[in-house]
Amino acid sequence: MFMPEPYQIHQRLDALADCPHWQRLTEGYRNMQLIRTFDKKAVNLQRTGQLGTYASCLGAEAIATAGGMALAREDYFVPYYRDHATQYLRGVPLYQILQYWGGDERGNAFPADTPASRDLPNCVPIATQLPQAAGIATKAKLTHEHAAVLATCGDGATSRGDFYETLNVAGVWQLPLVVMVNNNQWAISVPGQLQTASRSIAHKAEAAGIEGIRVDGNDLPALLEVLDYALDKARHGKGATLVEAISYRLSDHTTADDASRYRKASELHTAWQHEPIARLRQALVNARQWDAEQETLWQQHCRDVVDDAVKTYLEHPPQMPADMLDHLYATLPASLGRQRQTLSRQQGDPHA
Amino acid sequence: MHNAQQRPQHALPLNLVEAINRALFQAMSDDHRVVLLGEDIATNGGVFRATEGLKAHFGFRRVMDTPLAENLIAGLSVGMASQGLKPVAEIQFMGFIYAALEQLISHAARLRHRTRGRLSCPLVIRAPFGGGIHAPEHHSESTEALFAHVPGLRVVIPSSPARAYGLLRAAISCPDPVLFLEPKRLYRLQRLPVDLDDVPLPLDRCFTLRPGEDITLVSWGAMIHETLAAADHLAQAGIKAEVIDVATLNPLDRDTLVASVSKTGRAVIVHEAPFTGGFGAEIAATLASDALMQLRAPVTRVTGYDTPMPYFAMEREYMPSVERIVEAAKQQMEY
User: Fold this and answer.
1) Which of B32, B57, B138, B139 is catalytic?
2) What's B316's domain CATH number?
3) Which domains are assigned to chain A?
4) Which of residues 117-136 of A touch B (CB under 8 A)?
5) Quick one: average pLDDT of A244-265?
């Protein structure tokens, strides 16, 4: 049973000898590879004008995969916008993730028969998803659900009032909430030391009277242990947890950013030495849980799955212009009838 | 305030804040998904006592005192509403609502839209607004136009105890987010009969409070009081004024407004909020485009001034008066 050491960075990859969960780790490895393949493709799609501005998850694969694997079906997930792996593991098809970043809100209409069906969509305004996650946790508590809420954000988000207000209410109301910060060292161009003078981000839990845990965000087994612990605690009514997962953003902030303006190449080079996928692969190979042949086969599989998703995304018929009004209200108010007619004419609807 | 043991059954004389309390009580009795949250609303019953007795009756799980953070209150409400609860949150005064703007604009108003209907946000934010009660600084603003500009967010304003009761019940039943602004000057102004068995009143509709042929007076909230008084004055001068309570600012019931002004040919719009960019401008533009050929005089607006709501020593000078409305109407008649 994992017991967190207060504010010590929890690591597990270097001490896996007694790991009883090899199958879970190889499954996690496969997911991380798949999402990295997807991520590369998404960046390429943006570069060739087939996707909008896209937030890469390069370097966040372990964090988001651990989130997706640790969550139970009846739990809730409240993402920021670098959680493609979690969304995929919750049941959002890859083509819908592309659809979202392709500027089409149909990408947020997650399939009804998946754990993602109640999850919130990506949240672009920083940290605003956190009080909402507290609201969902309040609902879960009021209705006596055996469920936890996992919300994610970046290190920049921890400067916002929303972050503090959320931790504060989670402490007062003993909410079944886990807030996981992907501390990837950068909020676009602003580094961590300009974001906070706190000893660590996890220490910010102290003021709210909840538990704060630090974990190596490039270490899948460590992340799984921490999240299993925190989510289980939440489901059993034992309160909220702040998890600081320390990683490094190996990508630009988004495809609209150029990190070479503010980040040293040498720093990026060093960060690549600790990236989550190679580290996990090495540990699995050392333990004879993975080999070169499996690697080749799996990489081919990833390419096939991603190519398939891209095809589905690109072949999807466009939306109707009137959709923008039709989904705004449960029932379109009479006063918007005229605007809807104008939009319908734009789509050449003969019935308009 | 209400007798919790006794289910209301008849028309009762209630003031506006009592009507709010009754509507909350009824909605919570009818639907277990309705929960209340806000500052000082549980044990204290709200600073205006709108939620008095509700915690005692429904328990602290459904009537929640939150930590003091308006942004949090709105965010909690969005989260709850996204998962099927029907939160009714109180923001203690409209002057403190701005911290909640991001949650309302970026999330509540567009959650259904951006998930293509997978999730929705049936929340109500209640906030007392407007001046005239000699309140502290930042306690008397009327910034409804800021919110009426947000697609997907309904802005509903009652002007009598009966409409407070009927419209709040409708707002809570509404499957989409509603900002429910309560004219606090009317909270305890007078007790009028409220039929508690009535079906909820319709949203998105104006109410014609007084029929007339000569001129249309358009207003909402507390200013309805001055506007009706102005119509009485005009009647003494032989001018028959039609008085329309807009009630739902957005979506706006343009048809009722255009029909009335098509009949009278004249319109005076009255609001407490500042002139420039006030919601009266939207109504004036609607009349100018949709009733131009029927207009016999330019549309006039009688409003607050383009200044911050003055601290209470000068609020009388700021607020539109019966005299200003009457004068504007008479000028229209002589145009």
Assistant:
1) B139
2) 3.40.50.920
3) 9-319 (3.40.50.970), 320-352 (no CATH)
4) 117-118, 120-121, 125, 128, 130-136
5) 96
